[in-house]
Amino acid sequence: MGGYHLKTPISEEEIRKLKVGDVIYITGIIVTARDKAHMKALKEDIPEELKKYLENGVVYHVGPVVKREGDKWIIVSAGPTTSIRMEPIEYDFIKKYKVRVVIGKGGMGDKTLQACKEFGAVYAHFPGGCGALAAKSIKNVKTVFFLDELGVPEAFWILEVEEFGPLLVTMDANGNSVHAEIAKEVEGNFKKILEQI
Length: 197
Known about the structure:
Distance between the termini: 48 Å
Largest sheet: 5 strands, mixed, barrel
Mean pLDDT: 89
Number of strands: 9
Strand order of the largest sheet: 2-3-6-7-9
Number of domains: 1
CATH architecture: Alpha-Beta Barrel
Structural class: alpha/beta
Helix content: 25-40%
Radius of gyration: 17 Å
CATH topology: fumarase
Low-confidence stretches: none
CATH class: Alpha Beta
């Protein structure tokens, strides 16, 4: 497998070497977090153990499908959710918890891109529809936070992963964004179409 193979915790130096278009694989700990988890972590004090997993860590925008087998949790499917929903709060989340990699689908906006540049983070795209593939890289559910309060999709699941990917870096710590470039191209094409009408 080509690309960059990162192990958590990930240093800012490692992240700043990555460029848009790079492929990465992650081994170690990934923390799942969607809208409610982000908001809870920004409004309240969260356990120190959870903070340690987030610092120099990886956040995955996902609502996993989970089943219980005896005393163990098994991740059945873990396909990404649309990341743009977290755009209003991702900057503050990256700043507060020193997150290095944000994984999701569909990309994010200028505010998150600014956080990546300021604090040393990247956004990595995982293709939608590949939930079962993602689950294969998850070796163990280490623990879960706020399950009773937030429910299965929104809880913080702490996952031990091996070679999780391939993930495509689409926003880097140098201020480059595939999503911004595509948006400009679409806007330009749209204007051309309107001129021809």
